[in-house]
Description:
By secondary structure, this protein is α/β, with parallel strands linked by helices. The protein has a single domain, classed as Rossmann fold, CATH 3.40.50. Helices cover 31% and strands 18% of the residues. The chain contains 7 helices and 10 strands. Helix 1 crosses helix 2 (41-53). It is globular, with a radius of gyration of 16 Å. The site of 2-amino-2-deoxy-6-O-phosphono-alpha-D-glucopyranose has 14 residues, from helix 5. 2-amino-2-deoxy-6-O-phosphono-alpha-D-glucopyranose binds next to helix 5.
Amino acid sequence: MRIYRGKDYKDMSRKAANILSAQVILKPACVLGLATGSTPLGVYSQLIEWYRKGDVDFSEVVTINLDEYKGLAPENPQSYRSFMNENFFKHINIRPENTNVPEGLAPEAEECARYDRVIRAAGGVDMQLLGLGHNGHIGFNEPGGSFDKDTHCVSLTESTIEANKRFFEKEEEVPLKAYTMGIRSIMQARRILVIASGADKAAVVKEAFRGPITPQVPASVLQLHNNVTLVGDLDALSMI
Length: 240
Ligand code: GLP
């Protein structure tokens, strides 16, 4: 695993954006696996800036997002579809039909099977961007789940609901379930780019990359992938 240390959030975001833009420049019709959460926001802003300068072109790129809250319509401002449109897609020249996020309102079995078909039809993910939940979750793969799942529906843990409630007006509005790419789908990406920022992520970064490989820390499975890059700021990387 290669580790890049950014001096702060902005530097970390620029380093990670450099890696993603290199992927797009080398393979213009690549498939990017994308993530939500606050960590990738700086990466998306940096990519938008470079797009505006003419340095990176998304016209042939396909994106596949990791997850979506079950029960939220795409146009709900709290949906991950809205998050991606607002923070990234609407600012770049990606074709809307090339962007994929699970449909929060679609029935469970059909939607999970459809999403796996989308990933396969795209030829798999070239580069998967991942943030880390405080409990080691990736996408919405919570601790204790098995490593051999494709897209599936999960019940969110208390700690995830607690962490994500900042985006909702009331805690009761935070959905209790989500559709997520599984660990198997994530591990099939050809390259994985993990980003982490802040002292509150230092412990989970250590557990994930220096601790035992266990479903109790879903991100620890990444130690078994042969092409992982971790980009963090000094605070997040302070324990490794
Ligand atoms: C959510 C997302 C994850 C993300 C995590 C961390 O639970 N489903 O994909 O990595 O939050 O978010 P943040 O970057 O805001 O800490």
